[in-house]
Amino acid sequence: MNDGVDGKGPAVTIQMEQPIASLNSPKAPLDGPDGLVPYDPLNQSPEQLVEGPLTSQKTSTACTEFWCHGATIFRLFYQGAIIAGIVLIVLGAVEPSNFQVLLWVGVGVLPTCYLIYLVDTFCFNRNLKYLSNVGLINGIQNHIAEVKQAVPVICWHMTCYHNETRYRRVSYQSNGKTCYRTESHTVRCNTWSGSQPFLFSSCWDASPPDMSGLGQYKQTRIKFYKTFAFEDPNTEMSFIAQRDGFVAANRWRDIHYDFTEEFTVPGFQTAVVASTTTERPFYLKKRYYFLAVLFLMELPYSFCLKKGCPVSRFTYKKIIRC
Predict the structure, then answer these.
(1) Cβ–Cβ under 8 Å, residues 317 and 229
(2) What does pTM read for this prediction?
(3) Residue 15: pLDDT over 50
(4) Where in the chain are the domains?
(5) 250 falls in which pLDDT band (50, 70, 90)?
């Protein structure tokens, strides 16, 4: 989803989750997902929407994908902080007279970083999505066919609000006396929220016909993306008119507003694993993943998953007409 915008000014700035462009604008190519697949809504061929599995399972390939991912450095940092917190607690417990301060530092660092570690692992890490969506190649192909037949939904959401300054009286001690002071803080008050879908007459799918090369390896990770485009300028004009009309009809409800746009495709999954066999290696079993997470071995586990399962990318493309 796009970021919200402040409703003070008359203009509405929108950043789409997926690129949108008129079919009559071939000279303005758009960047594909993660900059991996460049595409244009007019001239985009099916081959540009699909990228086959990596051609090598060598350790160097897995290392490149592993270390070039920005989240790897972040996860390495806070997992190191967890280990440091454990060391500080042990030192403080063994020598409390000399390392009392380190003990309390470790008590503060360890649970905080471990909580961040768990939230990141189970809410933002793609590995758990892979392990939850492992299927045979035929099943994955059927899933792709179902999503290609699904009708997308584009919906706009809007929340109107204002900020209020509130005051509270707090007490504090000064020179043995109880004193009072007034503190102020600003809170956001939502007063209205609503949604409106984009109404169109029909749509058709311009995604690639299938995924090629899935049988090259026993297991292949697939990252899915989605995008949409307009069939003609009239559809684009209708889209803009409906969107701006929704904002104009409701922006007066309060001083500020947040506006977001959501593009969904029923059945869409961001990550799956296609397998040629029903037998799973250890790095595709959830119980081993949970054990690895528990004992701070998520990064080595992630490396094994990337090394054992080359990655492929597939983009669903919906063409909309009013």
Answers:
(1) yes
(2) 0.69
(3) no
(4) 33-53+132-162+191-321, 56-125
(5) very high
